[in-house]
User: Which sequence fits this backbone?
């Protein structure tokens, strides 16, 4: 498969994944473009029997982790503020806010398991961790999301006073 053909077939799918990982379209495009550039540099060496989509997915997750660590090290952004999420998750914005309230690793696990529909083993491979880590991060993320849904003090994305 030619690289251009791969990019054309993968762009939208992986852009959505990058957007769910970053929470921002511009950061997502930057992440995807950086990952594709690195992939292009290795294109001739990649095993054609390897799942190229899984390879790119792993690059996106690793790239997002690197972005997060770099920003954390540089102290450009203080801790991510807790986001308010209304009960019921009635819109895409509410789902996005709920995802963004999760720590990066938990968010990655939820996105890979639910959005990408990966098995625990596939998610562990994409994240470079054990299956047990995927299970525990997934359970913690779901607990946090359940807590957000149950909070009675939230209405329409803002705290009621």
Assistant:
């Amino acid at each position: 498969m030619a690289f251009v053909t791969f990019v054309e077939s993968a762009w939208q799918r992986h852009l959505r994944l990058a957007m769910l990982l970053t929470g921002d379209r511009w950061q997502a495009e930057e992440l995807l473009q950086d990952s594709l550039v690195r992939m292009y540099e290795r294109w001739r060496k990649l095993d054609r029997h390897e799942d190229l989509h899984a390879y790119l997915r792993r690059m996106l997750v690793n790239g997002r982790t690197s972005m997060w660590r770099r920003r954390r090290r540089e102290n450009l952004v203080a801790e991510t503020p807790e986001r308010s999420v209304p009960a019921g998750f009635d819109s895409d914005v509410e789902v996005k806010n709920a995802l963004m309230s999760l720590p990066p690793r938990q968010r990655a696990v939820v996105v890979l398991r639910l959005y990408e529909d990966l098995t625990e083993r596939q998610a562990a491979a994409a994240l470079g961790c054990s299956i047990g880590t995927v299970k525990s991060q997934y359970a913690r993320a779901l607990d946090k999301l359940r807590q957000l849904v149950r909070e009675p003090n939230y209405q329409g994305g803002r705290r009621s006073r």
Q: What stands out?
A: The chain has two domains: 1-78, 84-161.
